[in-house]
Amino acid sequence: xxxxxxxxxxxxxxxxxxxxxxxxxxxxxxxxxxxxxxxxxxxxxxxxxxxxxxxxxxxxxxxxxxxxxxxxxxxxxxxxxxxxxxxxxxxxxxxxxxxxxxxxxxxxxxxxxxxxxxxxxxxxxxxxxxxxxxxxxxxxxxxxxxxxxxxxxxxxxxxxxxxxxxxxxxxxxxxxxxxxxxxxxxxxxxxxxxxxxxxxxxxxxxxxxxxxxxxxxxxxxxxxxxxxxxxxxxxxxxxxxxxxxxxxxxxxxxxxxxxxxxxxxxxxxxxxxxxxxxxxxxxxxxxxxxxxxxxxxxxxxxxxxxxxxxxxxxxxxxxxxxxxxxxxxxxxxxxxxxxxxxxxxxxxxxxxxxxxxxxxxxxxxxxxxxxxxxxxxxxxxxxxxxxxxxxxxxxxxxxxxxxxxxxxxxxxxxxxxxxxxxxxxxxxxxxxxxxxxxxxxxxxxxxxxxxxxxxxxxxxxx
Length: 462
What we know:
- The protein is an alpha/beta fold.
- It contains 19 helices and nine strands.
- Helix 4 (about 135-145) runs parallel beside helix 5 (about 165-175), helix 16 (about 390-405) packs across helix 18 (about 420-440) and helix 18 (about 420-440) crosses helix 19 (about 440-460).
- The radius of gyration is 32 Å and the shape is elongated.
């Protein structure tokens, strides 16, 4: 006899009175033999059955061993009785008189590949800049009103620029402010592995229920679905099932949907159907703010704040590499007990992110001339003892650019400005870096002078 899967079963206190479960017991006894059945499975009881997942418990806390040893045969036998594929889970027994709650301990007969949200990735920890403002605003709108704002939302960027951070931030926001919402985060690789696992174990209905019953589905790196025909088809149907019910879909990708040439056209079209938001390369100010926030969160004590400027100047294209460089510098500090100053940072960065090697570096005099010309002051005035207000900024800028673009020591730079000491040079550079972090016009002035210096070098080499 077969028992259809369509409806939930109200479980009586004595599960022996369930005809379907009684039939499962009979067949199990026949398949594995009376001795093994009596020893291990005679105390097997039903905790819950919702038409897709059958939860069972075993007396004496043997559920893990039974799941590992007999899980597949129990699942196969139950499926043969109930007339369709189902998913069996074993849970720990409850104390006498305590009501068992389905899913308290999802120790499944068949392991389910999972991916989890990183609690560090939140909207509060995401640094907003010109390069990611649209993506951040869209992600936040989706988190606040899932299924209403932008559906689907696709965040695209090269690796290391923060798209995964935003994806996790959506999930973490919903967990905090909409705990009743069913949210699932998965990578494309996890989705693929879960699907293949479901095919191999004949638990495809359980797989479909897992993804298609969600209110919000977050999938990272959808480009990895390429050239996986059966997985793409299942993903397509999952997409349609959720979208048609008004559920929110958010994806990340390392390129535009139109560039996913090895992904089926119908999937590419669906990725493009909503809002496609790009995350670009962060500017200097954003890079420095990211580093400052990471240093604050991790409690990193910097002996010289300009360490952050050096990292932000040297690493320009990848946020992950930016934070990785800071971690490496902190590791060197921990191992050598040296303070986290400009010298230590330079030593570490020269190994992992060396400065571009140029045959011709600008001279101190060339930089002094270019900066002086920009501000209408002479080199003689720059190097004079005068502390006139109109000389302070160009003098500090010249020191900063010399330190950044040449190999001269602090002592040599100070000597070139009328015999000033290295502390004055350090202070001047810190002042410039601090102002550049907060003043976009000042950043543009710095960039213009760097271009002038580069053009002077190019002319000289011709």
